[in-house]
Design brief:
The protein is an alpha/beta fold. The chain has 2 domains: 2-185, no CATH class; 206-216 and 233-355 and 399-498, 3-Layer(aba) Sandwich (Alkaline Phosphatase, subunit A). 42% of the residues lie in helices and 11% in strands. It has 15 helices and 13 strands. The strands form 4 sheets. The protein has a 7-stranded mixed sheet, with helices on both faces. A two-stranded parallel ribbon has the order 1-5. A two-stranded parallel ribbon has the order 4-13. α2 crosses α7 (147-164). It is elongated, with a radius of gyration of 26 Å. It binds zinc ion. The site of zinc ion has 6 residues, from loops.
């Protein structure tokens, strides 16, 4: 008799896990390029561990039978509705999506309710309700059950895996829904200081373009002497000054961007200090401030971006985790030249750039360096192939910046473009890969400046200074002070000595 109870219990949880696989979790794996047997094996193992951990949490809730019978079907339906979008469009369950749902963006809500989605939802609801009805008398979780020990091991597995590789599970369904909702409600960790004084500039017709790159290391630009021609277009452009000795101690986006866009110095990592953002100063000086980004905003810099008077986030429901994310070039469609000569403006582009998974960042016509990687699992790729794929993203960057420059050349404005990558990337040095690694390869981001002929005519001295500093070692502190220096900002203290134009 006891054995059959146990069997019933096992059978209930096993079947429930199978339903979760079909309706929810498989969506997080289906788009992954496995590439090889090893890749298949690793992700298969990952998948099993995720389910084992999920079983652990579910079993614990199932000890409270009444709560479980109501809560689980609800959670199942919610998770299935997210999974549908991950299945069909590889959307990312991130803070951006949670925000859109919680702040009920009406046009998105209308988009969501299409026929296949409703059909899927009805199917999921019907399945889970029927499942619970069918198993009404079979589900007998108990603290005395020997299964409890497995459930506890399952929960421990979650923490062990997350500890081994950060976000290994948290970015996958259904965990991603929970953790990104938490993230959405988290407070930002930067305090921005308001600019209250009357900041001034006598300049006009000035156009400042800041392009924030992603994971681009300076030494992979042929402009900086890289052996491969990764800059076939930019090398044909005049008026480009590339800095190859730029340093940042920060190796991931969430940390580096707030520093680049505020007066926070790289040496200043103390908490509870207020910083002033570039945009708040320029707003006060009557600049038009505009943000065009191809990355979903992270908590650490969201408030800075919100200071721009106009903000466009391209393709905000696909994050870097998605394989269907828009390419950076799309951002240029949103950029309109302002011909008003009495207006100064700053436009910041935020690229997805060379973020892993490299192949997803570019069109196939840029896959020039071959062979490229075929698996998302790094361990199954050859080092050369990873570097080839990475270098192809640099070719795309070359193309993107060149397109932008061609567009800017048509403007009558005095235009300056500053490109700065948020950090570098490790490509196998000391067996380290990607970024967020404490390695010097992550700390030397690419940086270059392009200026229009009008700009040079108006500020010959600034260009002379810029060229003379080409070989200097600088830090990412330069950006804030350089932009205010270009803008000839008065009545706000900045460090002119940090400007690359001074
Ligand atoms: Zn980054």
């Amino acid at each position: 008799m006891e054995k059959s109870k146990l069997q019933q219990e096992i059978s209930f949880h096993l079947r429930l896990q199978i339903l979760i696989v079909i309706f929810i979790t498989i969506a997080s794996y289906i788009h992954l390029p496995f590439g090889s047997l090893k890749g298949n094996f690793i992700y298969g193992f990952h998948f099993l561990l995720l389910h084992f951990s999920l079983f652990g949490f579910i079993y614990i809730i199932s000890l409270l039978k009444k709560v479980f019978n109501i809560l689980l079907p609800i959670l199942f339906i919610i998770a299935s509705s997210f999974a549908f979008w991950v299945y069909t469009q590889d959307l990312t369950i991130g803070v951006g999506m949670i925000q859109a749902i919680l702040e009920t963006n009406l046009d998105i809500a209308m988009d969501v309710f299409n026929f296949p989605f409703i059909l899927f939802l009805i199917l999921a609801t019907f399945t889970i309700v029927y499942f619970f009805k069918y198993h009404k008398n079979h589900q007998k979780s108990s603290v005395k059950s020997p299964i409890l020990i497995f459930a506890i091991i399952g929960i421990i597995t979650f923490f062990v895996v997350e500890n081994y590789k950060f976000d290994a599970f948290k970015n996958r369904l259904p965990y991603s829904i929970y953790f990104n909702t938490i993230k959405y409600f988290d407070k930002p960790n930067i305090t921005l200081k308001k600019v209250t004084q009357n900041v001034l500039t006598k300049e006009n017709n000035l156009q400042i373009i800041v392009v924030i790159g992603e994971s681009v290391r300076a030494d992979h630009l042929s402009l900086n002497g890289y052996y491969r021609n990764t800059n076939p277009l930019l090398s044909q452009q005049e008026n480009i000054v590339s800095f190859h000795k730029t340093y940042t101690p920060f190796t991931f986006t969430a940390q580096s961007i707030p520093q680049i866009l505020t007066n926070q110095s790289i040496d200043n990592v103390e908490k509870n200090i207020e910083f002033t953002s570039l945009y708040s100063v320029l707003n006060k000086a009557s600049f038009k401030t505009e943000w065009i980004g191809n990355q979903t905003l992270e908590k650490s810099y969201k408030d800075i971006i919100y200071e721009n008077s106009s903000r466009t986030i391209v393709d905000k429901f696909h994050s870097f985790l998605s394989f269907k994310k828009e390419k950076d070039l799309v951002m240029l469609n949103y950029f309109k030249d302002d011909n008003n000569e009495y207006v100064n403006n700053i436009t910041t582009f935020h690229m997805i750039g060379s973020h892993w998974f490299y192949n997803s960042r570019i069109d196939s016509s840029f896959m020039k360096f071959k062979p490229i990687i075929t698996s998302k699992y790094l361990g199954s790729s050859r080092k050369e192939d990873i570097v080839n794929s990475y270098d192809n993203t640099i070719l795309y960057l070359d193309f993107f910046l060149n397109e932008l420059i061609e567009k800017l050349k048509k403007s009558s404005k005095k235009t300056i473009l500053i490109y700065i990558s948020d950090h570098g990337e490790t490509l196998g040095e000391d067996d380290m890969w990607l970024h967020a690694q404490e390695h010097k390869a992550s700390k030397n981001p690419a940086m270059l400046v392009w200026y229009s002929n009008n700009f040079e005519k108006s500020y010959p001295l600034k260009i002379k200074q810029l060229k003379s500093k080409k070989q200097d070692s600088i830090t990412t502190d330069f950006l804030f002070h350089s932009v205010l220096d270009i803008g000839e900002i008065k009545n706000f203290d900045y460090l002119k000595g940090q400007s690359i134009f001074n």
